[in-house]
Structures are given as C-alpha cells and as structure tokens.
Specification:
The structure is a homodimer. The first copy, chain A, has helices at about 25-30, 75-90, 130-145, 165-170, 175, 180-195, 235-245, 255-270, 275-300, 315-325, and strands at about 15-20, 40-45, 50-60, 60-65, 105-110, 110-120, 200-205, 215, 220-225, 230-235. Chain A has about 325 residues and is an alpha+beta fold. The first copy, chain A, has two domains: about 5-120, Phosphorylase Kinase, domain 1, CATH 3.30.200; about 130-330, Aminoglycoside 3'-phosphotransferase, Chain: A, domain 2, CATH 3.90.1200.10. In chain A, the strands form three sheets. The first copy, chain A, has a five-stranded antiparallel β-sheet, covered by helices on one side. Chain A has a two-stranded antiparallel sheet with strand order 7-10. In chain A, a hairpin with a 6-residue loop joins strand 2 and strand 3. The longest helix of chain A has 27 residues, at about 275-300. The interface between A and B is large, with 73 and 74 residues. Strand 1 (about 15-20) of chain A pairs antiparallel with strand 1 of chain B.
C-alpha cells in the first residue's frame, strides 16, 4: 500500500481500529514459546477499542492475540486473564487464555503486554431480538454462577465514588452538549448518593456486557468477550447494565417484553433476592449515569480532526430520564 | 464497548483501518446468495487501506469480504475481479472472487459495491530476505505469464502523463517537505519526459507489489494480494516497482544481492528483452518518482489532527537519487 493517508469522512457508519504493528520476525519469536505448530496467517482485527487485536491462524487453529495498550492497567491483567480461565473452566464460552510451554499466560510483544486467547465463533447482534435478550440473560446468570468461587477481586473503578470525578472532568462544558445538563447531573448524583443500595450480593461482574461483547450463532449465545472492565461489585448492577444496553429500542423506548425475557432467563440461572429486585431501578439509574458520564468526558475530549466520533452521551441521558420517571421495579419487567 | 473516543498518540508504529460497519442482518441477507452454509464469524480486518475488509468464517471455510470505498472507481471493479479470476485459473495464488448462486462476482452491501474472495494463508515480510526477493521475482514472472492472455485492459492512471498533475497538486508546498524539492522534481520530470521508453513489451501489471501485498509461508510465496492498482503497462515497469520496494535497505542503500536474486528468478519465468534491460534504470527512476509524488500529495493533505500518518515521500526521493547516480543497468544487478 504505497500511500496511506486517506481523507476519510467521518460518519456514524465508520469504526476505527488503531493497532500496534508487529513484524513477522517479532511474532515468530513470540510464538516459539507456544505449542502451536507453524504460523499460517495473522491479521489486525477491529475488535475492542481499548487494545490491539490480531487474528492468528496457526496449525493448531484460530486464536486471538491481544496487545494491551495504555488504557488497560498492566497490574489488572492477571485478574482479567485468570478470571477468563476460571470461567472457561466452568463451561462458560469466553476467550480462554492460552499458556506458553512454561505455563505463562502473559508475555511481552512489540513493547506491550500481550496474551493469546482462544477464538470464538459467533456474530454480535446489532439489534438484539427478544430471544437473544433471553439468551443473554441466561448467559449473564451463568457468568455470575461460574464466577461465584473466583478468588480474584478488583474494585469497580467506574462506580458511585468515581462519578463526581468524571462529572468534574466534564465541568461546565457539559452545557455545550445540552443546556441544563450540569444541574440535571448534579441532582442525579445527589439522588444516587442518598439512594445507592448497600449490602446487596456481590461477586465478579462483566460490567460492560453490551451487544458488541456478546457473540451469537442464531439465537444461541456462542461467546461472551472483552472482560477488560470486569470487577467485583453488586451482581444486580451487571443486570442493570444489560437492561440499559439490550432493552431500549432505537427511539429510546423501553421494551418490557425484552426485559422480562432477559430477567426471567437470568433467574433460571440465579434467583434474584427481593432486595435486589427492589434496588434495580436505582441501579439502572446509576448504570445509565455511568455511561452518560464516560461518554460525556470522551465527547468533550476528542482531538480536533480526529477520525473517531465518540458515542453520544445523550443516548444515556435519555435512558436515565426513562428510569427517573418509572415508579416501581414492575416498570422494568420485574415481578415483586 | 461503551466509549469509543480514544486519544491515541500517533506514531510510526500505529496503523489504522477505517471500515464501514455492516449489521448482522444485512450480512446474512447478502450471504444468502452464496453457497456457503452458515455464517460462523466475521471481523473487520486491517488489510488494504483503500477498502474495508472483513474476515468471513462460514461452514465452507475462510473468505475475505471487501467493501469498495470511494477511492476505487466502481467502473474498474469488473477489471480487477476478472483479472484475479483469470490469474487464479492459471495457478497463481491470488485472491479468487467467489460467485453467487447466480454467478455474480460483484454485489452491493451497506451501500457499497462488495465482493467476496478466497482467504490466502501467509504472512507478509517486513524485511524481506534474499530468498524472499528471489521468490517474489519468480512470482512476478509467473504473474506476467499468467496475465499474457488476459483480455481486459485498463490504462495506468499513475504513469508518466499523471506525474506533472500530481506535482501541480503539491505545488510550492513541496518546499515545506524539503528545500529544493520543487526544482529537483521539475528537472526529473523533464528528464523522464525526454527519456521514457517506447515500444517495450506491455501486459497486465500489478503496479503495487510492495512487501505488504505479498504473503509468505517461510521463504515461499503463498499469495499475491491487493490488485486494485493493476493496469496495462510495460511489464518491465512492474519489475522496476519491485526493485524499489524490495531491494533497498532501511538506510536506503541498494542491496544488489537482493536485486540479482529477484531479477534472475523473474527471468526463469519470463526472459527480459535487451531493450527492457536497457530501459530499467529509467523505469526505476520513474517508479521512484511516482511513489514520491503520491506520497507527497498525501503528506501535504493530511487533515489536521488525523490519526493516520502518511508515508514519508522522502523515502522515495532517496531511492530516486540513487538511481540518478547509477550509470548502467549493471548497477541494478542486470546483466547486459
């Protein structure tokens, strides 16, 4: 490819992947530590925005090679990798870290921490169906069950205590995004600080189980991916993230058929306690605010001329307004 | 992935792929026209900067789906696709267009022309060895032989007549890149207009056979890819492009061991005529200027803040200076 600067117009239909280039020689030497047979192909793939990912074809099959870029703390990598190993060992279809001949899961390549995980078949759904919401609910319940005896722990760096800081990062410029947003968020923060539940069942949560992180073959979940926000928090908070990410229609109406399907399937795997059901509306407000705030900070910090267009924070403000209006867990499809 | 704006610092180690997003439903409907069995996975891949490419895993195997973006003229697509089909039928390992059930090679997906080609194993070499240069030379000769009876034809849009226009696009701003560059290029253009050969053997050439467009398994060529600059021109010009792209060391010294290996292997497949040998130094100058000029235009037209860094035009100015100093085809490793 002789000339690589392209004046690409930005639109919602464009996605970007920036990745670290790896030379064939570096890669061959890295792979020599694995029991893979010959290298047959490798291609940079656009999966995950945080890290650089490559599809690796070796005689042993297809794998994903991940180079961890700056946004992932190297100290957290053992948590993520041992979690995936733990979950895969309990039958969850998630990427399984592959060990080197000397049983290491984490190495270094092109100056970055690097790991290889198994390749999972499946295609993520852009507009999940009711059946897919049900399948996701069951997979989430299975994830929480499989994680119950996981010993690792990692605080949720993007929970209640972090939100005022994110809000401060945005500052008054939030008004540029929507007039009145500053007082709206301030009031919501005050409400959540008063109302955030205590003492709910805790465990290992995915914390980012959006449709792009779930692979399907037809209506069957074939894999959960991208565990790089996983942490220890209320299990019901993970459910709240999924209700927000899976059950709103493109016009931001809440599809209660989807939420009922999701929640009922979840409960076939793990029964919700009454206090979790009661807390879900507040958890849903908190989860909506969390994504509104991180998107807001990204939105206000795009370098001029950048080719990436950040996701619209108002999509999560709209979800939050829905939750503010709802009166009871029943509005989310929960049965008391 | 909840937040997608990343402040990624630009460096030579970063490569970018922007691609058109395809929904799972659009894709399923597009694939229904093919005899592929079920869709098992698809991932956007960073291959080719001109187009959007996806790795497609179906029951029938691995394939590449390409969406043609603006820089490729839709009217040229039948030429490129029938050329690949022609070459593959003659045993060249290049991507082979796959036909729909109704025998079409070209369709539309996500508002763009789209085609599916076979997936080729292999890894491109960042620093080609002498053996790899020899293998490339033989593959180029094979390509020229296989293309000899191809009926399609497409003018080379980036040959001699186009260079003054490219130069005009850069204009006086070329001086920002290197002082004296404007008069240097003007003098070279005048020389090439006087000295450009006539009447050399013509045929279908790849015209962009850089190391990223050649896949190897070890020292064996396993595939030639990215035919989207292919056109009808002097066959020896293709060889000149390869001498420039494969035989210079990172310090821009010319490695005559590599060029001898490349040329000799080429001639095992297709013997050069004496007039081609004699013309090669001028063709090498022209080819160096062509890449210097397209890079120069890209370099001067990067949108502010863009994440892509264009390739350095001076890398080809340095090659051109080498060729200006050389006195005879012997300096390129050619035997008279």
């Amino acid at each position: 490819m002789p000339s690589s600067a392209r004046k690409t117009r930005l639109s919602r239909d464009n996605i970007m992947a920036v990745y670290t280039e790896i030379s064939d020689l570096e890669l061959e030497s890295f792979l020599a530590d694995y029991d893979f047979g010959k290298l047959l192909a490798f291609k940079g793939i656009a999966e995950g925005v945080e890290n650089s990912n490559f599809l690796l074809q070796v005689e042993a099959g297809l794998f994903i090679l991940t180079l961890y870029e700056k946004r992932v703390a190297a100290a957290d990598l053992p948590f993520f990798l041992t979690l995936m190993e733990h979950l895969a060992a309990r039958g969850l279809t998630c990427p399984q870290p592959v060990k080197t001949k000397s049983a290491k899961m984490l190495g270094r390549l092109a100056g970055r921490p690097a790991a290889i995980v198994t390749f999972l078949e499946g295609v993520s759904s852009r507009r999940p169906s009711v059946r897919q919401c049900a399948a996701l609910g069951a997979a989430l319940g299975q994830l929480h069950r499989a994680g119950a005896d996981f010993r690792g722990s990692r605080p949720n760096a993007l929970s209640l205590p972090a939100w005022p800081q994110l809000f401060a990062l945005a500052g008054d410029r939030a008004e540029e995004v929507q007039t009145g947003l500053v007082s709206f968020v301030a009031a919501e923060l005050a409400f959540l600080e008063r109302s955030w539940p205590r003492g709910l069942p805790r465990g290992t949560i995915h914390a980012d189980l959006f449709p792009d992180n779930v692979l399907f073959l037809g209506d069957k979940v074939s894999g959960l991916i991208d565990f790089y926000f996983a942490c220890t928090d209320f299990l019901a908070y993970d459910l709240a993230v999924c209700l927000n990410a899976w059950c709103f229609e493109p016009d931001f109406s809440f599809n209660v058929t989807k939420s009922i399907a999701l929640i009922e399937a979840y409960q076939t795997m793990r029964k919700l306690a009454p206090e979790e059901i009661e807390a879900l509306p507040v958890l849903a407000r908190g989860s909506a605010l969390r994504f509104a705030l991180t998107r807001l900070v990204d939105w206000l910090n795009v370098p001029p001329g950048a080719l990436v267009r950040p996701k619209d924070p108002l999509e999560y403000v709209k979800r939050l307004r829905f939750h503010q209006r709802s009166k009871s867990p029943r509005d989310l499809g929960l049965k008391l």
